[in-house]
Amino acid sequence: MPRDAERTHSDGYDPAMDISMRDRRARTVTTGVVAAMLVVGLSGCSLLGVGGPAPSSSPTPTSSPSTTAATDGVRFTERPDQAGMPACTSVLPAGLTARLVPAVADDDLLTEQEHMDPSAMAAPASGGLTCSIDNGVAAMDSVYPGTQGDPMRNAVTATVLPDASEALDTFLGQDSSGSGPVWCAATDAARLLCQADVHAGSAWLSVGLERVQDATDVTPEGMRDRFQALVAHATTAVQDSPLGSAEVPHETGDPGPSTCIATRVDTVTSTPLVDTNAGTDWHDDISWVALERAGADVCDFRPASEQGYATVAARYGTLPKGSWAVRARIEAGLVDAADRIQLDGLGAHDAAFRTCDDTLCTVDVVHGGDWTRYLLATSVAPDTSAAIESWATSSFDR
Length: 398
Fold this sequence. Notes:
23% helix, alpha+beta, seven-stranded antiparallel sheet
């Protein structure tokens, strides 16, 4: 077994507990709609069983006495320095994003989006930037193909990874489709997708567009020029900022998705699950490079019986030294600090917090400063609150 699959802490906690091995082979994106959706980002899978109206707006950030008491004694890490970082609204200005997607607003994924996992913070943890200008529907909540009344995501996103010219060149060199660094395509789920991966000084800038085809001009031909105008602006904004010339210490690895196994989560679900990415060919895109730099990981699982569009029934993610993100989400009211659960293997200054809504439950674990997160959908585990605690407990069991 590769060494990465055997890495453990001295207290017996294994951060690779649901990963059988790390697959670092260069891969090529498959053709078809699922591949197109996945290129937009790691979170671009819909949550199995989510339907009806879009999730309600996030609570107003708060730090109540009860929250303070619930986190008493927990040691959180310091948030990465954001000094000199360009604002998302300067990289993706309203005047240009409104031409692509109507009725959207700047969405702070960390403090405003309910269903977000550690992988979304891999770029900021590596000295970069992640932005989402969207309609309030999280990427994993968007229903594919979707019918009237289902939550469907409209969004413009940007991810910046500094000091990544070589990684971008490698990524572009893997493309055998002939689409080039900037492309737009329509899917058979009535979605328009556009993607750009370009140099911005020495940084890698990735810009994505996802929009429901709800108007006659929402076609690749109708939106390409508008999208290219946004990419040109974002490129200038990033290369003129400190991100465009920053030198960031990092190892040059061979990034790629992990091969994940569902053995432990399967013990608490009503149907067998499999790795969502199994059998899928990949580019080493900016999401995976950011994960590699941050030492982070993510595993998505779908019902073994599901075919076609990617769905997420369960998700496991880690971000080393990322507990600063848990603190921010507790203060924003997105993690239920009052529902603190006990897990074997946690130290005196560690904690696990369970949060549930109508569609899923999560457990956010602070362990030695790291952030580990479990997500489980009600559709595959009706008694979700108890099931996710059992899953997390088995994973932390010595």
